Structure formats: structure tokens, C-alpha cells
Amino acid sequence: MERIDINGRSVETFVAGSGPTLLFLHPEDYFGQHVPWLEQLSRHFRVIAPRHPGFGQTALPDGYRTIDDLAYHTLDLISVMNLRDITLVGASMGGWIALETCVRSTQHIARLGLLAPIGVKFGGRQDRDFADIYALPTQEVTHLLFHDPAKYLPDYSDISDEAALEIARDRQSAGYFLWKPFMHNPSLRKWLPRIGVPTLVISGAQDGFVVQGHAAKLAEALPYGSTQAIAQAGHYPQIEQADATAAAIVAFAQR
Length: 255
Hints:
Helix content: 25-40%
CATH architecture: 3-Layer(aba) Sandwich
Number of strands: 8
Shape: globular
Largest sheet: 8 strands, mixed
Radius of gyration: 17 Å
CATH class: Alpha Beta
């Protein structure tokens, strides 16, 4: 992991590969499980995957309160690193940040890939587009998130204290940014037409966390949206079906 200075903010960043730039905005959890997938993508792209403020070893600056702050932080990163013609990919919470980033500016973003994104609510006031993982038993949550949790859920009994502390910090920060309103911005939906770049919304066919049909509604709300479902995958297809998800991103970027 490298350290990149973004206007005085030291950002822990995974960087690998060469070629066209792919900027990956990670989800709220399981960053370690994404590294093999990022390495796979690095065969085709220069992959840049920063840890969001408050996650990993990236400090949470004073005054950062919302996903809006993380979107402006991402725009700062793009500017400071002088990134151009970007394939921007965001997963879950990272998908929300990517959407908020793109409604503000797509000047240097050529295409947008979303992996089971949250952030946009299509249901009514009493409907839940995203399961309340903070109110459910852990075992039920893992079955909502993973098609095969026994195979893909990390073994927390065999990690260092430092790694356990980092995971706890990630989850604390996720709750901080995602809690209220719960996992969405009520205003974001109306601004989606501003995202004038090709967008692929990828979903896991067995995702129990995001309400069924959400990906199709999001793609329809975007000017140039399309969808693709990944079989035998839950909320994190990039973890459970790394090959198929990487192939979908590569094909999308080359279209």
C-alpha cells in the first residue's frame, strides 16, 4: 500500500498494474477480500484503490460527516493525481460515493461501473431498499451478503490484533457515514440524469441485502445505464465471482 497526499490528507492507497486508469472505490467492509480481484484487474488497468477517510490507515479529517464529503474528497484525489479518462468503479458504499462524485463532475470520468451500489432509494417511505444489517443477527447478515458465506467469509479467528482493529475501525466508519438517512441520499435520485457517461450496474444474482429489481431501476434512471447479473454471487460479486466480475468490467471498459 502506498501513501498519497491529497491536499494535506495522507491516503492509504493500493496501486498496481499499468495501462488505462481504473479508480476503485471500495465498499464498507471486507477490503482484504478485494485484493485478489484488484490484482486481477491490474493485468488490464492501472488500478488505484484508495482507502476512504476513516477506513484502513487513512485518517478521518475533522468535519467529514457525509458521503458528500467523500465525493468531494474523491474529486480532489482525481485532480491531485492528474487522472484522466477514468473507468470509475464503486462497490456498495463505494458505488454511492461514485454516484455522488459523478453528479458533481464527470469531466475526467469516461465510464462508471457500479457493483451492487447503495445510495439511491426507489421504494416508498415505509419500504426498505437495503436490509438493516445493524439490527439483524450476524449469521443472517452473512447469508444476505454472501451466496456461499462458508466459502468466502473471512476467518476472523486467525488474524492479527492489528488487522482486527482495522476491520473494527472500518465498520465503525461505515456506521458513521451510512446510518442517517439509512444507506441513501433522498436527493440523489433526481440528480442521476447529470451522469452522462456509460454506466454498467452489476448485481449478484443472490444478493439478499439490496431489494430485488434495484439494479434495473437504477440503470433505467441513468442516461446511459445497463445491467448485468453475476450468477452464484451475493452482494459482493467481485469477491465471490472474481473472474466473471473482472471480465464484465474489462469488457465494459473496452466497449
